[in-house]
Specification:
about 475 residues, mainly alpha, 19 helices
Amino acid sequence: MLAAAAAAQFVFALDMSVVNVALPAIRTALGFAPLDLSWVVHVYALTFGGFLLLGGRACDLYGRRRLFLLGLAVFGLCSLAGGLAQTSWQLITARAGQGLGAAAAAPAALAMLTTTFAEGPRRVRALGVWSAVNAAGGALGVLAGGLLTEYAGWRWVMLVNLPVVAAALALACAGVPAGPQPVRRERLDVLGAVLATGGVGLLVFGVVRTDTLGWGSPATVATLATAATLLVAFAFAETRTPAPLLRLGLLRSRWIAGANVLVFLAAAGQFAAFYFVSLHLQQVLGMSAAATGAAFLPFSAGLVAGTIVATRVTATRTPRMSLVPGALLAAAGLAWFAFISPDGGFLTDVLGPSVITSVGTGLVLAPVAAAATTGIVLREAGMASGLMNSSRQLGGCIGLAALATLAAHRTGTATDPAALDDGYALGLAVAAALFLLAAAVAIGVLPRRRTGTPVPRPAAPAENRLEGTPS
């Protein structure tokens, strides 16, 4: 089960980054218009992030193994379709399908681990493996994208998913039991699903379009305002249904609330770091796609090392003991990154901060999943998993868009390496501040001691409210 969940998470993380390096080749091969090319990346983030809450709740109601297998199969078939695409719309449709498959399988995988491994050292070790593989997939995606694009062709950035998906399906079919059927079948919260999916989807849609429209454009403001309205309506609707898509009472737990805020901030900083460092290597230092991918190998090694250390620390102590130093270490590495120079090089400007940032990020990624599932009852494991995955996905999407816009404003219309580097440095400095804020959340919100008390589940719809809300 652990191998199946880890393989699935690896390929989802890989797919988030492997396509980026291949975008110029995809544009040439399929004749993308300049403004449409970014949708090869954006549509995956849109469907993945938009349907995670629905996927998490569906795996609680209809079976985690069933949703895991279905999501993986959809993801694999759409990867094949994307690799065989002959037109731009075919590739974009395939990428949307990949996001839907991942939104079903990713929370199901985390929920399977949460329900299989009892809270404590065994679950921490399992989530440590899951987190290490997730981190390695994102970092190795840059390397794989560069090598495949340069030596095999852009189609292989899609087709490379197939053997990993096949392995995960085989492992799941052989080693993951079907699990007991729910004693009392709850109905899916259709209204909540529509409001949450629409709200989160519009939020991601509005954010990803800021690279062309800007944050202050009427279209962006209208989209984000509509998204906010739908999400407020979703929160209100969840207090009125006996079987909510997201039980708001979960947020009474300091572990769950704090971990979701923390993972949002950490994902924003991590995604931005990948983006700006990759651009610095290619557009300022002039490295090829393959060389840029190879330059991320120390980053990958540091992520894995950090998660191993975090797993050992969290097995005997609270996640807080790893989250605080990890966030501070990542902030220090990104602050060092902010001193990048167009006259520098990989050994002088990139290697050192890569190691520090990646180890710190690894110290954060491993225990945050354990923190976000502390005290969860088994029948709500998918709900909590969908919430955490949504927080991470939204954090990465919103953080990257905001910091990219900030860097573009600093750079202006200049295209020389010094001006570009100035914008990237600003983005990395703000990413460091995000990790500092994550450390503050870990210190101020997360409990000092681990408690095994389950998050209370209300017996009546009237109790399904945020703490402090009148009945």
